[in-house]
């Protein structure tokens, strides 16, 4: 009986807005026939990131693609490994003969070390290995000293997590994401000066073991051979990587994250004018402290669906695909934040759009 090789897993981590999903899309678009499963870990019951990733061409039918994107609803993988991550991995292990690689995108606050340690569990360790932990760095944000593109939004998330109560929390979170890295990508390198980029490289290097490589990228566009096949076996040496968060996982009683204060609401609307919709969403973000907006919109007289992603008041949008002949042309949005009034937000959107 043929023994199956261990299935390689790449873990992608980084702050909100650093470009993790863009990197994954690039990897999937350039999969070159590799059969890849994706685990998307993000706040929100409706996995818009999963919807985005399903648009990528990975050499399989739409039905197969839908079966290969696994979305974990909670925002912190280190909290959900026992409840959600393990069953998902067990299913993938059972199918590993049909897969070549697994990609895991963590949420902006997920600490990679506990996730990598989960690969030490016998049932996973015998079938999988962590090929690499890739930390995506927002170079302009680090150059500005904020570490995240939208520090207020990231800090709002952090304050809801009692296990991240440090004097300089964002810097320590940033350092912890780097502490587990096998490869660091200085993303958005084209948006800062060569001098600032050199300073960012030096600052990042101070947090890394000497063997960890640092590479630069624009929108995560790197050759796939640079990103996978690293063979790091991260689970073998992760216990020796120090992080500020270590002491919080010494005992079961300390592992008591509470993400219930995050609200994730889904709103369905009819077709909407693009400019009006984006203006209305910007107003909602400003007035209600919304952390993230994801979704798609039906624009009148447009044959294609408009994909929308917002972090803070910055919105990225593009037409991703044509509407299906039998598909309802609706606008579906997910708003993520704290203490959100679903009915009030929907009413405000409808009033702004006059629908």
UniProtKB/TrEMBL annotation:
The keyword Nucleotide-binding applies. Pfam families: cobW, CobW_C. Residues 248-259 have a biased composition (Basic and acidic residues). SMART domains: CobW_C. Zinc chaperone that directly transfers zinc cofactor to target proteins, thereby activating them. Zinc is transferred from the CXCC motif in the GTPase domain to the zinc binding site in target proteins in a process requiring GTP hydrolysis. Gene3D superfamilies: CobW-like, C-terminal domain, P-loop containing nucleotide triphosphate hydrolases. NCBIfam families: CobW. It catalyses: GTP + H2O = GDP + phosphate + H(+). Residues 237-259 are annotated as: Disordered. Keywords: Chaperone, Hydrolase, Nucleotide-binding. This is CobW. Residues 262-353 form the CobW C-terminal domain. SUPFAM superfamilies: Hypothetical protein YjiA, C-terminal domain (SSF90002), P-loop containing nucleoside triphosphate hydrolases (SSF52540). Belongs to the SIMIBI class G3E GTPase family. ZNG1 subfamily. InterPro entries: CobW (IPR012824), CobW-likC_sf (IPR036627), CobW-like_C (IPR011629), CobW/HypB/UreG_nucleotide-bd (IPR003495), P-loop_NTPase (IPR027417), Zinc-reg_GTPase_activator (IPR051316).
């Amino acid at each position: 009986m043929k023994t199956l090789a261990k299935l390689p897993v790449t873990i992608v981590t980084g702050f909100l807005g650093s470009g993790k999903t863009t990197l994954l899309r690039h990897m999937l678009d350039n999969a070159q026939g590799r059969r890849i499963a994706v685990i998307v870990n993000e706040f929100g019951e409706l996995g818009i990131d999963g919807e985005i990733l399903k648009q990528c061409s990975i050499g399989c039918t739409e039905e197969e693609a839908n079966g290969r994107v696994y979305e974990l609803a909670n925002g912190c993988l280190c909290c959900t490994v026992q409840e959600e991550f393990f069953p998902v991995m067990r299913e993938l292990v059972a199918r590993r003969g049909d897969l070549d690689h697994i990609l895991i995108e963590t949420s902006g606050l997920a600490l990679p070390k506990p996730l990598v340690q989960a690969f030490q569990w016998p049932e996973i360790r015998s079938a999988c290995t962590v090929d690499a932990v890739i930390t995506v760095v927002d170079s302009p944000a680090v150059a500005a000293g904020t570490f995240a593109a939208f520090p207020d939004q990231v800090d709002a998330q952090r304050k809801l997590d009692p296990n991240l109560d440090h004097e300089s929390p964002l810097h320590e979170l940033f350092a912890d994401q780097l502490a587990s890295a096998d490869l660091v990508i200085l993303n958005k390198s084209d948006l800062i000066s060569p001098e600032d980029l050199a300073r960012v490289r030096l600052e990042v290097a101070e947090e890394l073991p000497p063997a960890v490589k640092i590479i630069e990228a624009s929108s995560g566009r790197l050759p796939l051979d640079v990103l996978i096949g690293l063979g790091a076996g991260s689970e073998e040496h992760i216990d020796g990587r120090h992080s500020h968060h270590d002491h919080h996982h010494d005992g079961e009683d300390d592992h008591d994250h509470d993400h219930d204060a995050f609200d994730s609401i889904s709103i369905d609307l009819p077709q909407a004018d693009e400019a009006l919709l984006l203006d209305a969403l910007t107003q909602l973000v400003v007035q209600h402290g919304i952390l993230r907006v994801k979704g798609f919109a039906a624009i009148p007289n447009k044959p294609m669906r408009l994909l929308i992603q917002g972090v803070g008041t910055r919105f990225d949008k593009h037409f991703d695909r044509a509407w299906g002949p039998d598909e309802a042309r609706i606008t579906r949005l997910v708003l993520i934040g704290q203490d959100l009034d679903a009915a009030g937000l929907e009413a405000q959107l409808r009033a702004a759009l006059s629908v």
